Amino acid sequence: MSKFYINKLAIVGLGLMGGSLARALKAQGSVGEVVATGRRAASLEKGLALGVIDAWTLDMKEAVANADVVVIATPTLIAEKVLAELAPLMTPSMIVTDVASVKGNMQRAAERVFGEVPANFVMGHPIAGSEQSGVEAATVDLFLDHRVILTPLSTTAEPAIALIQAMWEACGAEVVCMDVAEHDAVLAATSHLPHVLAYTLVDALAQNGSAADIFRFAAGGFRDFTRIASSDPTMWHDIALANKEAILQGIDDFSAHLDKVRAAIASGDGDTLYATFDRAKRARDEHFLGQYLSRQKKSPSS
Ligand SMILES: NC(=O)C1=CN([C@@H]2O[C@H](COP(=O)(O)OP(=O)(O)OC[C@H]3O[C@@H](n4cnc5c(N)ncnc54)[C@H](O)[C@@H]3O)[C@@H](O)[C@H]2O)C=CC1
Ligand SMILES: O=C(O)C(=O)Cc1ccc(O)cc1
């Protein structure tokens, strides 16, 4: 991948994701100039002061002029507005990509703006992040050893896909391609539903008495389970609305399962409870222990 180099990268929406991408590409020497644009001068200025970007402007036209790659890294529901602004500025040699957590609504947004999704728009989603947001939280290794899912369409240009794949690989990520609907179903189950559950649990407890009193007696498990309820509410508001159907399916499936656990507790059915908890422990251990062991194999000292 030694030939991979981006002369000018433009980032629309400089936060955790855009900032971490800029940091990683700069650290690898894979980018010449990084220019960011967005809504708030203060966070763009912060990005410049932190050395995450080389320049910023509030003018989209100036930001994307002569850019090889434009990355849309705003909250999900803002992307359509960004695409509409970008549309008259796009050139055949410019490759546009995004990092949004939901892909179906991104495809529909692009279809509304362009008629059909342009061949040089490669939809993407890094499966890496945290409950923090903003450019100040951006790190150089956020994507290292994480997966990035690309959801190209049959009309997406191969060289554009190859370039975006190379961009993420330069950040240390493993790139996999997936169908849009499959992406949204899988992410609804593994990411969107857990966030909805964590927010709802914390809110239900906090509404149900003094949050300070309840949380005072919480152990580490509660902290682990609810870390993601500290995530940015705007981002998750957007994701919940953008992936509505798949998340509703996830909530329904989960509710049916929870009802079974509730019935087992109510009737004292210890066998069902044990079997449920045992299956869950095995499934989780198998996956995460496997991951841990393969990481140890790669770098035994860490
Ligand atoms: N935070 C995470 O862990 C992950 C986030 N994502 C996705 O990446 C995208 C960005 O997320 P983060 O970087 O975490 O968010 P962030 O809040 O850190 O950054 C978003 C940036 O977009 C800017 N912005 C907001 N409205 C805008 C507008 N109207 N025009 C231009 N800029 C605007 C904000 O000022 C901010 O700088 C979202 O679509 C999110 O779903 C994907 C994977 C992981
Ligand atoms: O904080 C965490 O553990 C996350 O789950 C981060 C995350 C948030 C949104 C995504 O679309 C992908 C990853």
TrEMBL record:
Per the database record, which ranges form the Prephenate/arogenate dehydrogenase domain? 7-295
Q: Name one GO biological process term.
A: tyrosine biosynthetic process
- What's in the keyword line of the UniProt record? Amino-acid biosynthesis, Aromatic amino acid biosynthesis, NAD, Oxidoreductase, Transferase, Tyrosine biosynthesis
Give yes or no: UniProt keyword Transferase.
yes
Molecular function in Gene Ontology: NAD+ binding; prephenate dehydrogenase (NAD+) activity; prephenate dehydrogenase (NADP+) activity; transferase activity
Catalysed reactions, as listed in the record: prephenate + NAD(+) = 3-(4-hydroxyphenyl)pyruvate + CO2 + NADH
Stored Pfam families: PDH_C, PDH_N
Matching entries from Gene3D superfamilies are given as: 6-phosphogluconate dehydrogenase C-terminal like domain, NAD(P)-binding Rossmann-like Domain
The family note in this entry says: Belongs to the prephenate/arogenate dehydrogenase family.
Protein name as annotated: prephenate dehydrogenase
